[in-house]
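Project standup — Tuesday

K.O.: blocked on the structure for the chain from last sprint. Re-posting the sequence here as requested.
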Amino acid sequence: MKTQILKLDSPYDVIYAGGYVGRHIATLVTWKENEEGDLIDSQSYPVLDLGEEYPAGKLVPVDVEDCRSLCTPKGTNLYWVAKIIEYDFQQEIPAGADYILERMKLLNCFIKMPVEKDKDGNEVQIYDYTATLDVMCLKGFGDEPGSIYRVRSNRYEGFYFESEGTADEVYNDLSMQLHTYLHHFHNEVFTIRFQTTDGQLLDVTNRLNAEQRIEGFTHEDDTF
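H.V.: unblocked you, prediction finished:
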């Protein structure tokens, strides 16, 4: 087997690689050749600078094709960050939104926040968001005690949420994720109003909204 380190030029992209978030400073390429010198197999692994207290040169044993670009030197946007957090949830051992956002902050990633047009056509930043939850009952019947749910939000609304468990477990998971977002975006986000697509887990959404002192949220409002 042959190997070669391909050093990349700065400024570097910040990538998500196997649960790590860091600057992509190099790629380790390995390959095999047959007796005739023809390529028969190759793999590429990212080498990261994790920043802050970590020395540069972390080799992550995951193929580059399974990594995701998180932030270019010019920055990224909130919707792309939500997509990466959704991708993280799909991994066997998710790193978690708190880790991803904290590393992005330490690596000086600029996240452009969404804007909308006011009545005069001027762009104004959005400070209040909605999280619409798609709820699937995996075990039990609706609000029956002990029912197991799988809950996922729509990342195109700006923030991604996911949980699986009983109603109380889902509430605890989503509450922790909510406060992670509110902490990391404390100057850019005032509220994230929860609702569901079909009225399930109304108590969970009401409790999450009550935490943020969002009032007037009833079953009639719980539509998509």
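K.O.: great, moving the ticket to review. The CA atoms of residues 45 and 188 lie 35 Å apart. The two ends are 55 Å apart (CA to CA).
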